[in-house]
Specification:
The chain is α+β, with helices and mostly antiparallel strands. The protein contains six helices and twelve strands. It is globular, with a radius of gyration of 17 Å.
Length: 262
Amino acid sequence: MTRTFCSMVLAIGLAQPAFADLTLKQTTTGKGLGLGGQTTGTTFIKGNKMRNDVVLGDKTQTSIYDLDAQKMYIFDSKKKEADVWDMAAFAAEVGKSVDVSSTKASLKPNGQTKQIGGKSAAGYDLEVSMNAAMAGGKDMNMTVTMTGPTWIVKGAPGAADYARFYKSAVEKGWIFSDPRAAKAQPGQAKAMAEMYNQMAAIGGLPYETDMQIKMSGSGPMAGLLARMGNISMTSTVDSVETTALGDDLFAPPAGYKLSPKK
C-alpha cells in the first residue's frame, strides 16, 4: 500500500521547448488511506519516455513509462527484478470500470500569483470528477472528485515536453500510478491522468499543486468510503534541469529479471 500511494502522489512531473530532455526534482507531502509523510523524488522526461524515482527510506522506487512500446516498468533498488505491464491491454481493462463520458474537468485562473523557486507562477483552480466502479464491481459505483489550486509557470523550460508527453499518454489511456492500485480504484487513477492533461493544456509547468481527492457513493459504498477517508497531497518543485539524458535511464538495468504482469 505504501508503494502504490507514494507512486500515485509523486507523479506531478515536468518537462524545454524543441524536444529538450528534462530532470525535475520535487518534494511531495500527502496523507490519506492511513498514511502520511513526505517523499522526495526525481522525474525524467525524454521524448515519449518518463521515469519517476521516489525515495522511500533506504530504497528507491522506480516507475518507467514507455509510451511507444506501451510498457510500464516498476522496480526498486533492493531487488533485481522489474514488473512489466502491457499498458494497451491494461488501459482497455480499466476502461471497462470507468465511465469516461461522465468526466467533468476545469482549470480556471484565479487571478493570484506566487513566487516559487525564483519564478512567478500564476494560480489556477482545478476540479476533476469522474464516475467509476471500485474493483470493477458494477454494484460498487462511486464518484471521484479532485479539487485544489495549482501554480503554473507559463513558458518555463520543459513546458513543451511536459505537454507533449502527457497529451500522448492520456490519448493512449495511460494512468500514472501502480497498476495494482489502479485496478482497485480505477476512477481515482483516471481522474489523476485527466488532471495532468488539464495542466499540460495551459502551456506551462505546475511548480506547486495542493490537491484534495474525495470519493463518494451511495448505499453500501457510502460507509466503505467514509472509513477509507480522503486523500490530500502537496507537491512542490525544487529544481528543473534540461541537460541531455541517456537512453539507458529509461529501461530496467541490465541483468534484471523481467516479470510480465496482468
